[in-house]
Automatic annotation (TrEMBL):
GO terms for molecular function: ATP binding; ATP hydrolysis activity. It comes from Musa balbisiana (Banana). Residues 143-165, 292-322 are annotated as: Disordered. This is AAA+ ATPase domain-containing protein. Belongs to the AAA ATPase family. BCS1 subfamily. Residues 153-165 have a biased composition (Polar residues).
């Protein structure tokens, strides 16, 4: 048997010396017609585009192709790709791999059939292929995310079938432009990054991949700007859900199902809706909170939000009957953390309020909104940033006021 295994390894070495590589073909389209694109081809294209941009491009023999393409969405993106029959070397786990771009013009047609060919060391191919392709797809996915045009959605008015309409999302606020006290900024960024990288964590723990943020603070304290900064940081779409336009829980569900993965879903001024909850239940709310919410409603001249509460078993039936609104608190809770919250991945749900004390406790319960962010008066550090950015000065009366406030607190 020793002789046999010796012969076997000699035979393998001989084969390896004749054909030491394995080759894999990645065509642009699946099947014979150019209809169904191959996602892996797109990923390889993006991955090599990035490699060509980096210093590795120096090792390419012929000049790469530079094209302007519309890969997804409506924004043209310049893209670098290998010219036909040009190769680019890559290394992974200590092995050298070679990508070659192949382009053949079909007979009797001007159509070009393109594919990438991957060359791997034969002995390592089986162990290498899976992990290399998932490394490549992760990188391509990241690139795709960071270059994709994003949109701001709002839900259609009541009456018709619930749907979203959208415009390009181009809000300029970022964590760099937002003046926040450093510990808050650092912890928010860390939280968002951990969330975005949390696929494995959420899978392992059996939890829906979503995170709830409650932003509270007086008008103008930066809640909307923070939402934009969150969306820009994560490169997510934004769904601005106007609850007053939603007639039924079923419409709420339908809207949720239509939202895409990697999105921020925003419900602003949640306190206005929840104040009605209190009225309808007949339970006494803090008069200050009720006053605050009604003041705000009046100021905004909004239609009456149509949220009611059906989460409590002891709900007064007559109140339920007198309730002409059919989006209920339990519908909203289901939206946040019930079964329906799981029909998608990578969702950040943000509620804003000017009066946290006016928000129904059911929404504030620990675990429901994961992160509560209070945005108050500008601290000295944030004020210094703003003064420098807006006035270009390091001294200002407002800065002294902020410093005095900080020292009193
Ligand atoms: N921390 C901040 N850093 C930079 N700019 C800020 C900050 N906070 C507020 N602003 C500026 O103040 C203005 C109002 O902010 P924003 O609309 O985000 O407040 P808001 O809390 O959402 O207000 P409202 O409760 O009325 O909706 C914006 O122009 C924004 O640029």
């Amino acid at each position: 048997s020793q002789l046999l295994s010796l012969l076997h390894s000699m035979w393998q070495s001989l084969q390896d010396s004749i054909t030491p590589y394995s080759y894999f073909d990645v065509p642009e389209f699946l099947g014979s017609s150019a209809v169904e694109p191959n996602d892996l081809y797109r990923h390889v294209h993006l991955y090599l585009h990035q490699s060509l941009l980096s210093s590795a491009a120096a090792s390419v023999s012929a000049p790469p192709r530079l094209t302007l393409s519309l890969p997804r969405g409506s924004v043209a993106v310049p893209s670098l790709s290998l010219s036909p029959n040009q190769s680019l070397e890559d290394s992974f786990a200590g092995h050298r791999l070679l990508w070659t771009h192949q382009a053949d013009t079909l007979q009797d047609s001007l159509e070009e059939r393109r594919s990438f060919s991957l060359r791997l060391p034969k002995r390592a191919a089986a162990a290498l292929l899976g992990s290399y392709l998932s490394h490549l797809s992760d990188k391509a996915d990241h690139l795709e995310r960071s270059s994709r045009p994003r949109r701001l959605y709002t839900n259609s008015p009541r009456g018709g079938s619930p749907s979203w309409s959208s415009v390009p999302f181009r809000h300029p606020a970022t964590f760099a432009t937002l003046a926040l006290d450093p510990p808050l900024k650092t912890s928010l960024l860390a939280d968002l990054d951990a969330f975005a990288a949390g696929r494995e964590f959420y899978r392992r723990t059996g939890r829906a991949w979503k995170r709830g943020y409650l932003l509270h603070g007086p008008p103008g304290s930066g809640k909307s700007s923070l939402i934009a900064a969150i969306a820009n940081h994560l490169r997510y779409d934004v769904y601005d859900l106007e609850l007053t336009r939603v007639s039924h829980n079923s419409d709420l569900r339908s809207l949720l199902i239509q939202t895409s993965n990697r999105s921020v879903i925003v419900i602003e001024d949640i306190d206005c809706s929840l104040d009605l909850t209190g009225d309808r239940r007949g339970t006494a709310k803090s008069s200050a909170a009720a006053l605050a919410a009604s003041r705000k409603r009046a100021a905004r001249k909004r239609p009456q939000p149509s949220i009611s509460n059906d989460s409590s078993d002891s709900e007064d039936e007559s109140c339920r009957n007198s309730n002409d609104g059919r989006v209920t608190l339990s519908g909203l809770l289901n939206f946040i953390d019930g079964l329906w919250s799981c029909c998608g991945e990578e969702r950040v749900i943000v509620f804003t309020t000017n009066y946290a004390e006016a928000v129904d406790p059911a929404l504030l319960r620990p675990g429901r909104m994961d992160v509560h962010v209070r945005l108050g008066a500008c601290g000295a550090h944030a004020m210094r940033e703003l003064v420098e950015r807006y006035v270009g000065a390091t001294e200002h009366d407002m800065l002294r006021v902020a410093e005095r406030n900080d020292s009193i607190q």
